[in-house]
Amino acid sequence: MPPTSTDTDTELFASLRDGAPGALDELFRRYYVDLCRVSVRFVADGAAAEDIVQETFTRLWTKRLSLPPDTQSVGAYLRRAVRNRSLNYLRDRKRIPVDDGELPELAADLEQQPGARLESAETRQRINHAIDRLPERCRLVFVMSKLEHMSHREIADALDISVKTVENQMTRAYKFLREWLGVLVLLFCQYICLN
User: Fold this and answer.
1) Where does 107-194 sit in CATH, by number?
2) Which of 66, 81, 176, 191 is exposed most, by the fewest CB atoms within 10 A?
């Protein structure tokens, strides 16, 4: 029986292992957008992220006979595959940063937007913007830790750096984000007081 949109992810994964192309199509529809978001956080390039996700699904099809039979969390499996392929993309292009980079100036961007409203979607967008402004290695470590839920050891192994370097990068990221959010709150309070 061909897979349907009401099948669970686990059922689709089993159908995929059995060679049902419809299962691949349905998994693609369910996960493509989310997986592109995962990849773009690593590679910071939308077109490259789409290519990475498409390559992941292509590889999923070609390697379907060797897929693990007991995969209960298909979403986590696909995220891990995209994460690894994104890291390979960076490594192949020698884009995994080896230096710490300089932290950007904080107040300049925010002073241009003193009337910004602190709604949750807008706040999330500003936080994402701040994360994107972190130096490359700092951003990569932060994304791997906080958005991909990787341990410091896993990050160190993936980037071929020490655990201490991971900890230092996380400290830098937290410091920058804390300062950035502090400036944002201060400017918001000034805006409220003036109106």
Assistant:
1) 1.10.10.10
2) 66
